Amino acid sequence: MALEKPYLNVPGTTIFDADQSRKGYWLNQFCMSLMQADNRTRFKQDEDAYLAEWPMTDEQRAAVRARDLNWMMRTGGNIYFLSKLGATDGLSFQQMAGSMTGMTEQQYREMMLSGGRSPEGNRFVGEDGNAQGPMSQSEAWKEWQAQHQLAQAITQADAASQNAAAGQARVTASVFASHVPAIGAAVDHGKTGDDYWAPMFKGFEPSKEWMKKNTPDVIFLVYNDHATNFDLSVIPTFAIGTAAEFEPADEGYGPRPVPTVKGHPRLAAHIAQSVIQQDFDLTIVNDLKVDHGLTVPLNLMFGSPAEWPCLVIPFHVNVVQYPVPSGARCFALGQAIRKAIESYDEPLNVQIWGTGGMSHQLQGPRAGLINAEWDNQFLDRLIADPRDLSTMPHIDYVREAGSEGIELVMWLIARGAMADVAGGKAPTVAHRFFHVPASNTAVGHLILENG
Ligand code: DHB
Ligand code: FE
């Protein structure tokens, strides 16, 4: 199902949405680099050499060389970023805007002096206003198009044949697992068979078997960043990773020797747009390093392969600095994510994972708190009555499961994305496991399959 994009029908206008941002990422980042004087100098000295430093497309480089702003926008540029290039050339915003209209500088200035362009006839494509004509194009762009017409026709044919075979993406299962840095260290240092660790890893053997038969195309992985990518300068409540790749972060012990996580930028951008249109305010993150919160659950479910066997969309939830989102908000967000995934026009098998928890407290004289009875009740309620569980206030997590037990609110996002919450069949429990301790933490684990 196509996303709601009424703005595609506004003449002479490009709205910078997640798709445009994905296309234009490096073009816009290149423009940002021109905010530094020494970069401007290097760019002016040798444009080609400077442009070669940025992983832009050849077309984006050609558009920059031609200083054709319409062309740059067509390839994903946004005017606020592109303006750094204009500024480097000594242009004003009025000169930049005017250059895209097909008018001379003088004509444009006079139009603005006489009250600006009228919206009359310029609200919808196909009306008879003065912004309805063909887009002004530089000679360089015209030449580029002539040369690449054939290639474009082939790409369009490919897209059409892909669409013909399309079905919808489906959320097939949810997986819940604690993450603890020490589990990652045990994997990395070959200690999984030690007396301390063996019983914990044994609990995930059935999960690895299940995974072999149920490897998804994409995992939507809900986790929390632990003061790794986001320090106190920026604290997003919910953040979605839309990049193509996510490197493992150096959390102070050196980056974990695990494979690079490969993302799904197109699906992530689709989910971002759909979920924001459902009134959840997501932060879009195009540059993200992932910590133990994300990599440890991957090890628990896949072991240590040379490459992760599927794509992963990281989804971060702030559970570090209060206020953190409520259980009810997380549960509702899960439902919105399900809608978003299942409106994606490609027959992808998608799993949603909730990670973190169970009971643990890493700080203060109460450190080491474990409440196995409460944890197991949490698992029971998560399976049987997640809606009721979602109304539990934060303070109950803190009192009963320890200050860091609040990570468990993230599990409600994954649970909210299951079919029964949207009126479908109740899920089946493919596996359930509980173990104490892993470092300071109670390890809980569930696999729920949609019927
Ligand atoms: C531990 C658990 C966590 O969830 C975490 O993020 C860091 C440490 C622990 O038990 O050591
Ligand atoms: Fe944690």
What does this structure look like?
By secondary structure, the chain is α/β, with parallel strands linked by helices. It folds into two domains: 6-164, Protocatechuate 4,5-dioxygenase, Chain A, CATH 1.10.700.10; 170-449, 3-Layer(aba) Sandwich (Protocatechuate 4,5-dioxygenase, Chain B), CATH 3.40.830. Helix content is 42%, strand content 13%. It has 19 helices and ten strands. The protein has helices at residues 18-33, 37-45, 47-52, 58-66, 69-74, 79-88, 93-99, 105-113, 139-164, 181-188, 198-202, 205-213, 265-277, 292-302, 327-342, 372-384, 386-389, 394-401, 411-416, and strands at 170-177, 218-223, 238-241, 245-246, 261-262, 283-285, 311-317, 349-355, 428-438, 441-449. The strands form two sheets. An eight-stranded mixed sheet has the order 6-3-7-2-8-1-10-9, sandwiched between helices. β9 (428-438) and β10 form a beta hairpin. The mean pLDDT is 95. It binds 3,4-dihydroxybenzoic acid and fe (iii) ion. Residues 179, 226, 293, 356, 407 line the site of fe (iii) ion. Fe (iii) ion (FE) binds at residues 179, 226, 293, 356, 407.
Task: Show the helix and strand layout.
Layout: H1 18-33, H2 37-45, H3 47-52, H4 58-66, H5 69-74, H6 79-88, H7 93-99, H8 105-113, H9 139-164, E1 170-177, H10 181-188, H11 198-202, H12 205-213, E2 218-223, E3 238-241, E4 245-246, E5 261-262, H13 265-277, E6 283-285, H14 292-302, E7 311-317, H15 327-342, E8 349-355, H16 372-384, H17 386-389, H18 394-401, H19 411-416, E9 428-438, E10 441-449
Parallel strand pairs: 1-8, 2-7, 2-8, 3-6
Antiparallel strand pairs: 1-10, 3-7, 4-5, 9-10
Bound molecules: 3,4-dihydroxybenzoic acid (DHB) and fe (iii) ion.
